[in-house]
């Protein structure tokens, strides 16, 4: 080494250590081991009743809790929905649809039994128009379907989020109904936290 090189080198800089010939270089990550992609998820805050905020999924939600939460998150496509939120709502929806449809059919049967007469020749005739009660239940059934279409779509969207999938995957259920059952049964994934959008805290009044 020349005198000029000695003066240019910082005396406090540590000298680089040479790697012994034939020794492998150290590896920080073992070959074949994936790098962690998601950080550990922070616990979801809850209120005094144990309910999480609307932006978060509610694991272990009860029947009434899921029913009320469905309407509170009417058109919210961000965030996640737990399996309990998903299946409790569909049970509630099945109950309402069954009651309204059964009432519609029953009103028609009652009307048909009392509004038809048979003469001595065996000819059956109707003595009145279509019952207004049946029309009422048919209208309620149609209104229920319209009122629940958007929130049901949003619920399925959030359910696939909880499984770590993108929301548009739920559209597959429109072409194949069994896909909705499969999506509803998928286990939650930590990757689903990427779809959460926590509500910003309100400034103090």
Write the layout of secondary structure elements.
Layout (H helix, E strand, L loop, with lengths): L2 H6 L54 H10 L10 H32 L1 E3 L5 E3 L5 H31 L9 H4 L1 H9 L20
Antiparallel strand pairs: 1-2
Helix pairs in contact: 2-3, 3-4
Low-confidence stretches: 4-13
Strand content: under 5%
Average pLDDT over all residues: 82
Strand order of the largest sheet: 1-2
Would you tell me the structural class of the helices and strands?
Answer: mainly alpha
Number of helices: 6
Q: What distance separates the N and C termini?
A: 72 Å
Major sheet details: 2 strands, antiparallel
Q: Please tally the β strands and state the result.
A: 2
The percent range for helix content is 40-55%
Overall geometry: elongated
SSE arrangement, N to C: HHHEEHHH
Rg over C-alpha atoms, rounded to the nearest angstrom: 32 Å
Tell me what the structure shows.
By secondary structure, the protein is an all-alpha fold. The chain contains 6 helices and 2 strands, in the order H-H-H-E-E-H-H-H. It has a two-stranded antiparallel sheet. Helix 2 (63-72) crosses helix 3 (83-114) and helix 3 runs antiparallel to helix 4 (132-162). The longest helix is centred in the middle third of the chain and has 32 residues, at 83-114. It is elongated, with a radius of gyration of 32 Å. The relative contact order is 0.13. Mean pLDDT is 82; it is low at 4-13.
